[in-house]
Amino acid sequence: MTSVRVSWSVGLLVGFVTISTGAYAESRKVVAESTSQPGAGLSRTELTIRAGSSFDQFDVVRLARTGAVGAGDAPVILLAPFGFPAEFWEAAAPGSAYEDSFGPALALEGYDVWLVDSRLAAAAPGQCESGAVDCSPMQDWGVDTAVEDALFVAKLAEKAGTSCKKPIIGGLSGGSSTALAAVNGHPNRFRGLFLWEGTLFTADPAIRSRNAAFCLADRAAFDQGTFFDGSVAVFQLLFQLATIAPNDPSPIPIFPPGTTNLQAILFALTLPNPSNPLNFTETFIRLVGDPFAATLVHSDIDRVLAWGGLVGTYAPIAFIRDSHCAMAGLDDSFTDRLDKFDGSALVFAEGLGFGQMMLDTAALLERADVTIDDNPTFGESDRYSHVDWQGEALVPLVTWLETVD
């Protein structure tokens, strides 16, 4: 990988400060920048954004075509799923080229792509609990903070780019939820909205009731001073073991005796688990497959392990609380102005993931030009991990992007 100066306009952003508005009123500043050329015709700039202490920061990756060919490419902001870094969008199966991942492929289609972290705790397992790392800033890492992070990136994209067009914003899972909330709060800020299996609304009374119970539990934990959830570290471990020793027996005792590490992660990804608060419906699954046979119906297991290995160590309860309470109908502040947005929207709905919830959300975009791509046979992450992810995900997105004014 060769280090290069991608763009003087990006380089000048180091030290640029903006003041946030709303509940989380702290300045955000670009404190570090590195540049590289990971593939032919593509430049990559990584920025570190700080909003207080060194713990209270996030990363952004900009992907753009090099030279004159990239001049004027319209900005597209992709927010990572909850608990994942910006590099989620760069994950490719082992042996694949860098361009064989979603973010780079989209940039090469002619877009100025900005990939954004879901905020991650810079702490190893156990460090938040022991106090070795002060994780208290996570108490502010709710949906509002994620929205303000996205708005800051939108300003960066406008200052660094040469296109006169407003950004398009989207994301997957929690990133989709954040994009939705950003457009709700700032309906004139973006040209387009891309929702991919993530929302903060449902019209289903049963799903509302389920999430109301989780909302109350989240609020109780928060009131007791618990601001982070370390249980995601188990998910991280499952991915690590499945990658380094897929056929070895799993050391995690919750699985049936003789379960291999690969089977264990597939149990977690392919079977419904109503007790899991991050499964927002009782039938929610991430991938369609058979954990006993260690096979997937739609997805490439190597692509799954590539992105799965990026999952963080701790999850901010504030974001989970905001999501549960919104889906419960107890807080509509993230969806109460969607009828003001009159841009274009693309909605990916997967029947075995968020499913009908995505269609309910699309109905709130009363003034928008909405395109719905609904696949009733997919789990939440099947489209992203699909053996033909270009045909199932990239092509429909690019086709829609070409229509956005």
Largest sheet, in brief, is: 10 strands, mixed
CATH class of the largest domain, named Alpha Beta
**Which fold name is given in CATH as the topology of the largest domain?**
Rossmann fold
Q: What integer value in Å does the Rg equal?
A: 20 Å
CATH architecture call of the largest domain: 3-Layer(aba) Sandwich
Helical/strand content category = alpha/beta
Assembly context of the chains:
single chain
How many strands in all? 14
Task: Assign an overall shape.
Answer: globular
Approximate helicity band: 25-40%
Count of the domains? 2
- Low-confidence spans: 1-25
On the 0 to 100 scale, the average pLDDT is 92
Number of H- or I-type helical stretches: 13
| Range of strand content | 15-25%
Adjacency order of strands in the biggest sheet: 1-2-3-4-6-5-7-8-13-14
| Helix and strand element order | HEEEEEHEHHEHEHEHHEEHEHEHEHH
CATH homologous superfamily grouping of the largest domain: Alpha/Beta hydrolase fold, catalytic domain
- How far the N terminus sits from the C terminus, by CA atoms, comes to 36 Å
Task: Outline the structure in words.
The chain is of the alpha/beta class. The chain has two domains: 8-203 and 333-401, 3-Layer(aba) Sandwich (Rossmann fold); 231-312, no CATH class. Helix content is 33%, strand content 19%. The protein has 13 helices and 14 strands. The strands form three sheets. Strands 1-2-3-4-6-5-7-8-13-14 form a ten-stranded mixed β-sheet, with helices on both faces. It has a two-stranded antiparallel sheet with strand order 9-12. Helix 4 packs across helix 5, helix 6 (205-223) runs antiparallel to helix 10 (317-327) and helix 7 (232-244) packs across helix 8. The longest helix is centred in the middle third of the chain and has 19 residues, at 205-223. The protein is globular, with a radius of gyration of 20 Å. The model is unreliable at 1-25 (pLDDT under 50).
